């Protein structure tokens, strides 16, 4: 299988038929179970309260997962900007994806605060294939400054990560089901990279892989936040309405086709991508 970063590179590579206004369905899709989050990180658009903080309708969730799997989607991520461990039916969502829909790979990213050993056990036993902790803070003080959450919870996140490794290993030994355990850290700048070395070294024995990520811009909302320079990504523009369209209808919508044509022509004037930092 290689490393988690190699998997991400393979699944996101756009070549051949994918470089088209009407590409095949993506091999990997994220679906957000909840827009709620227990953090208010300055670099995340979630903290700006631009939408209702609600959970997805379970019936819509089940319908979309069935549609996407039938179309050939292979990997499903049960998260986006919200914190999925706040969703009480997260284990049921994982079980539905694995056992009812037959997704080969179900993955999840968490900020770690609500990922208690009990909840992690429920998720892995439901069939979760990959759990990644977003570990973005050098110490308790920085944790509090960035998340607006009490400093002591920085240690709670580390405790939950260490406990997740024990839970994962117990389940793997008992049932043979192996869930990859990972951590990523946002590299705001070289100073942050250096500052986090001690914290990262503490968690390395408990994860299968740790990797660094740039700070992604979210619809331009976090560009330049607190002096950071984000990388383009997560623009979040509406290309379809899955409440009244099928997944394939939204994926091949007129809006999406026009946007793809513009990007393929490298002329995004007048599109949602025009002010993307990738073109500045």
Radius of gyration: 19 Å
The second-level CATH architecture of the largest domain is Alpha-Beta Barrel
Per the CATH scheme, the topology name of the largest domain is TIM Barrel
Overall pLDDT confidence: 89
Question: Class of the largest domain in CATH?
Answer: Alpha Beta
Proportion of helical residues: 25-40%
Number of helices: 10
Structural class: alpha/beta
Percent of residues in β-strands: 5-15%
- Spatial order of the strands forming the largest sheet: 1-2-3-4-5-6
Features:
280 residues; 6-stranded parallel sheet; alpha/beta; TIM Barrel
Walk me through the topology.
Blueprint: H1 4-12, E1 28-30, H2 58-71, E2 75-77, H3 90-100, E3 105-110, H4 117-125, E4 130-134, H5 140-147, H6 153-175, E5 180-186, H7 190-195, H8 197-203, E6 209-213, H9 247-251, H10 254-264
Parallel strand pairs: 1-2, 2-3, 3-4, 4-5, 5-6
